[in-house]
Amino acid sequence: MLASLQQLPVAWQTVGLLLLSNVFMTFAWYGHLKTLGGKPWIVAVGVSWGIALFEYLLMVPANRIGATQFSVGQLKIMQEVITLSVFVPFAVFYLREPLKLDYLWAGLCMVGAVYFIFRSP
């Protein structure tokens, strides 16, 4: 299975790993607001660190693989776009936050960031 994943283009490997790592990151950073609201903050920190371990196990390889083809700036902007793409559905469906037009405006700003960071070779 790992060998077949390594045959994917670098961009797909990078984006896939970043996407998965951001799911863990979002739960680590914000999931405790729903599930551990009544617990002491130190409990939330411990649980979040445990979840974040899986984020790092995916994020570090994503950046190492991605660095073979992308600049650090490109990797960072990719990660930010993916973060917003994961966060908005998480906020709306898991945390039951209202869907705001501001998410669209933030997304459009990210499109601009993607354009500028990827426009030159």
Automatic annotation (TrEMBL):
InterPro entries, A to Z: DUF486
The alphabetical list of record keywords is: Membrane, Transmembrane, Transmembrane helix
Q: Specify the superkingdom.
A: Bacteria
- Pfam families listed in its UniProt record: DMT_6
Q: Which residues cross the membrane?
A: 12-30, 42-65, 77-95, 101-118
Identification of the protein by name:
DMT family protein
Q: What lineage does UniProt assign to this protein's organism?
A: Bacteria, Pseudomonadati, Pseudomonadota, Betaproteobacteria, Burkholderiales
